[in-house]
Design brief:
This protein is mostly helical and about 500 residues long. Among the domains are: about 60 residues, no CATH class; about 250 residues, no CATH class. About 75% of the residues lie in helices and about 0% in strands. It has 24 helices and no strands. Helix 9 crosses helix 13, helix 19 packs antiparallel against helix 20 and helix 19 packs antiparallel against helix 24. The N and C termini lie far apart (about 70 Å).
């Protein structure tokens, strides 16, 4: 056995991440103990929080679980927080973890039905403006009852499916032939122009749908992971949560859909690409091919999925069980009646959400640093010192700005915990606590569309297999989200200030 070179260890460290990124993470880990000795725990805590936000912002370079996890582990080792605090944070958020583990997996078994629905929408509607509105509204509606991460996963599957079909034909192959759609080397010259326009078309739909998941995700307990956490603290059930949020979420929904329409009319900020007729023809032929080969067994699966979808909506509306338990019920019903009984087939359903679930637990390590060192207490105290009528608006702005540069789950987890502590200590009334909870929920869900790292669904889209296929980079997402950020963000603030 030969000696292992140090270079081999370096190449393995954080895998394919760039060298400058690896060196930055190593620098963080080396200097954190030094900073703790020289500057004390409070400033070191802020440094650790900023380092963690950096790993979120650089998610395209390396998934944040590994570098963020190393920082969180070091924080525990340095005594900035304790394993017990992290455990307590995880236990408090256990319903959220159940949501991610079981609900996302449950919807995985509905993909056929959802793919069927989105395919019919795309191929039947010729108006790009109407199609964009339908994608955005459908994503919003589904996100209100499923969760934004799951709906994004479905839309990604739709886009990859459409792209791979056209890419295969553009490479001179038949529908049934194997094909690698990650490279354009095999594309025939006559298809190149349509392929680029098709990429732009899919980028438009992906962004409209991603914003749609935010529009719907903010409205209910299951739309975003932090919503359920907020509902746990406030003790609001599904319908109650929806009604309390409605004075803010409904105006934002109208403005968001209006923005979607105006962007397609004006063709600004990278929007306005249409589906080339040549691409439509190929996709219609593929859909007819799929429909012709669909068996009675396939149709029976769609029926079971539709029945499960109806049960899901009713179960959530009447809160018959914890959301994660409802998700597990959906898994059992669909797999039992659709013949998915092999554990390897079941395993695929959990692949999409478990990495993010693990990342969320790492979040709680950083949240532990914030809590144990009271990092946000001065900010909370300052906002609570303002006149009561100004506090919801300031919480909305503070949560919105932090969510845009870090992650809305992370920010909401910290703020709702701090505000709940103020309420239990008798520092604020129940009425004000409810208003601040609305401000935190809407503040973390609406302005956070500004950047991919602000929304879990956006980050999921950015790091997905479809992003490189349709040339959807970090800065492209920021540019395309900008008009939504402005119109929806301002509307949300006005609603929080004057309609609550």
């Amino acid at each position: 056995m030969t000696a292992i070179s140090m270079n081999s260890f370096w190449q393995n460290f954080l895998g394919h991440a760039p060298d400058w990124y690896k060196k930055t993470i190593v620098a963080f880990l080396v200097f954190n103990p030094v900073i703790l000795v020289l500057l004390g725990p409070t400033l070191t805590g802020w440094v650790i929080v900023l380092e963690f936000i950096f790993t979120l912002a650089m998610a395209l370079k390396c998934y944040p679980l590994q570098p963020g996890g190393l920082i969180a582990i070091e924080a525990v080792a340095l005594g900035m927080t304790s394993p017990q605090t992290v455990y307590d944070e995880v236990v408090a958020a256990f319903p959220v973890l159940l949501l991610l583990i079981f609900m996302v997996a449950g919807i995985y078994f509905m993909k056929e039905l959802l793919l069927f629905t989105f395919t019919k929408i795309l191929l039947k509607v010729r108006s790009k403006i109407l199609l964009s509105l339908l994608f955005s509204f459908t994503a919003a509606f589904l996100s209100a009852f499923l969760d934004a991460l799951t709906v994004t996963a479905v839309i990604i599957s739709v886009a990859v499916g459409f792209f791979s079909v056209y890419h295969k034909v553009a490479s001179g192959k038949q529908f049934t032939e194997p094909h690698e759609h990650g490279s354009d080397d095999s594309i025939l010259d006559s298809y190149s122009k349509d392929l680029e326009e098709f990429r732009g078309f899919l980028r438009n739909l992906m962004m409209h749908a991603a914003v749609g998941t935010a529009l719907g995700g903010v409205t209910t307990t299951v739309g975003e992971p932090q919503n359920l956490l907020i509902a746990t603290y406030t003790e609001w059930e599904f319908i109650e949560f929806f009604l309390i949020m409605a004075p803010v979420t409904m105006p934002v929904l109208v403005v968001g859909l209006t923005t979607c329409m105006l962007l397609e009319i004006t063709k600004q900020f990278g929007y306005g690409n249409v589906l080339p007729e040549g691409v439509r023809t190929i996709l219609v032929e593929f859909d007819e091919h799929q429909s012709g080969s669909r068996t009675d067994k396939d149709n029976a699966r769609l029926v079971i999925q539709a029945i499960s979808a109806v049960f899901l909506v009713i179960a959530l509306a009447f809160h018959i069980a914890e959301v994660g338990i409802i998700g597990l019920t959906i898994i059992v019903l669909q797999t039992a009646f659709n013949g998915v009984i092999d554990e390897h087939d079941l395993g695929h359903a959990f692949e999409e959400a478990l990495p993010f679930t693990a990342l969320l637990v790492v979040f709680f390590g950083i949240v532990g640093v914030i809590h144990d060192n009271h990092l946000f207490s001065p900010v909370i105290a300052w906002v609570l010192s303002l006149p009561e009528e100004a506090q919801p608006g300031m919480f909305y702005i503070a949560n919105g700005l932090l969510s845009a540069i870090s992650d809305n789950v992370f920010v909401a987890t910290v703020y709702i915990g701090e505000v709940h502590t103020a309420y239990t200590n008798g520092e604020i009334s129940r009425a004000l606590f409810d208003k601040l909870a609305v401000a935190i929920n809407t503040g973390t869900n609406i302005p956070s569309v500004a950047t991919p790292n602000g929304q879990a669904a956006f980050l999921f889209l950015l790091t997905s297999s479809v992003a490189p296929l349709i040339r959807l980079s970090y800065m492209t997402m920021v540019k395309m989200a900008l008009p939504y950020t402005i119109t929806m963000g301002i509307t949300g603030w006005l609603a929080v200030m004057y309609l609550l």
